[in-house]
């Protein structure tokens, strides 16, 4: 992962919780997302993911990460995006995050840079943003003609079992 940084400080408030930059960025398809770097434990290339029988569709499976069993969450599925083309999961990346006392690995297409952005550039979620994304995002930054959607890790990992 490249460690290039935009040198500006930010403390980004998100729906009643304090989350602050910098952010680890990643892509799923053509979309750019970020999570607070303070919640990121590891960046890895995923190879062997053990499936979880009868698990929610968002849960791709489990991995053994240095002796710990970690749940792998497919961000593409969680965000309601189309499945990746067959064979495109080779080289898939994982962003391991901490939520409470548990670790989860977010399955993403590519990991980008660590960026720090000024708080005044954080915008509320646009009304045109997909309703599910609005629920999972804490705001957006406009960067070089793209939207960087800042995901709330706690809400992203709040996966409800389907009845």
Q: Helix amount, in percent?
A: under 10%
Total number of domains:
1
Give the helices and strands as they follow along the chain: EEEEEEEHEEEHEEH
Output the structural class.
Answer: mainly beta
Sheet with most strands: strand arrangement: 10-3-4-12-11
Q: Strand content of the residues, in percent? A: 35-45%
Number of strands: 12
Poorly predicted regions are 1-19
Cα(first) to Cα(last) distance is 39 Å
How much is the average pLDDT? 85
Task: Spell out the blueprint of helices and strands.
Elements: E1 11-14, E2 17-20, E3 23-28, E4 31-36, E5 40-45, E6 59-65, E7 68-74, H1 75-78, E8 93-99, E9 102-108, E10 110-115, H2 131-136, E11 137-143, E12 146-151, H3 153-156
Description:
This protein starts with 10 loop residues before the first strand and ends in a 7-residue tail after the last helix. The strands form three sheets. A five-stranded mixed beta sheet has the order 10-3-4-12-11. Strands 5-8-9-7-6 form a five-stranded mixed beta sheet. The protein has one domain (11-156): CheA-289, Domain 4 (OB fold (Dihydrolipoamide Acetyltransferase, E2P)). It has three helices and twelve strands; from the N terminus they run βββββββαβββαββα. It is mainly β. Mean pLDDT is 85; it is low at 1-19.
Task: Give me a quick take on this structure.
With 163 residues, the chain is mainly beta. It has one domain (11-156): CheA-289, Domain 4 (OB fold (Dihydrolipoamide Acetyltransferase, E2P)).
